[in-house]
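Hello forum,

I keep getting stuck at the same step: I have a sequence, I want structure tokens, and every attempt I make locally crashes halfway through. Rather than fight my setup again tonight, could one of you with a working pipeline run this one for me? It's a single chain of 363 residues.
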Amino acid sequence: MSSSMLINPLIVGFTHHIGASAMIAGSIAAIMNLTSLIFRPFAGQLTDRVSKFRLALSGGLLLLLAGLGYAFVTNVWLIALIRVVNGLGFALCSVCMATWLSGLLPRDRIGAGMGFYGMMNALGMAIAPALGIWMYQTFSYRWAFLCAAGFSATLVIVIQFITEHGQPQRQSTTKAQGLRLVQPKVVPVALIVMLLSIPYFTTQSYLVEYVAARHLHVAVGNFFLIYALILLGLRIGLKDYFDRLPFRVFLLAGSISSLVGMLGLTFMTNNWWLVLAATGLAGGYGVMYSVCQATALLVAPLNEQGLANSTFYIGMDTGMVLGPFIGGILYGSVPYQWFYPLLMLTLPLVGLVYLGFRHELAR
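Reply #2:
Ran it on my machine without issues. Output:
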């Protein structure tokens, strides 16, 4: 996660720096997420049919190749090609490793295990961008990209020490299974995580501009670091409850927490409101990310755990794409006072999805 997240905040500036227009630079930046979204279903199919070790190694090598490519290639269209490689590696690693980990866990501890996995994801998403920006400002783009390549090289080395290589379930290789792009039982979970992720990824893309437009004197640069620290504490504190409490309890608490976070951003005037907002989003999307992923694995058959994970990630990827898109529409067309109140409309939609599929999501 750190490998890709370190690169993401730099790629627009880097591509623009080597001669691309702002529109082309933005399009090239989006290629990775689009590639990942398209490839997710096939990554899930592969994960249920091929050794997890082999797929994780392939994904790690693709990420390593991408990191080195960014560091040494200065042609705009080659950068676009490298974004595709980055997206393929990211899709393979994220789906494969989540499924690999779930296969190493007892079924009654999947919630706690995926909570720790999600915590590592959150730390990568929060800390790596700050590290990448610091590397670029202190040294150069090239050294920042080499740092990302270093994370990928470490990944490739560390997985060599996992003795259980995650061989596929025997029944998942049968011819009767056919090609399936999503796991139907996981679709409601994917819709929920998509809706909860939209305000988060909108905030990730537009928080700096939102604060500047309101002329607020707050430590906006610390928002996601605060978010990561609070999420770390929440996941450690809740680790024994992920497998005990039903999904509906977490969903209600997460929805209320997301509402608190968006209210904090709406009324923000000082750093205390910033902390409240970060806490709310951490307790909302941050915690529900792990809860939804664990639920996706529990409602799906054992021989379709890879497909279940890929379906879950399709929901997250869609939120990652829709968040900045919706944010751009709102930021350019409504007063800032309505920016987060309109994003709050995602929460009743979450409730409608749950009510429509509550029997399937009961666990």
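Residues 184-361 form a domain with the Growth Hormone; Chain: A; fold (CATH 1.20.1250.20). If your local run keeps crashing, start a new thread with the error log.
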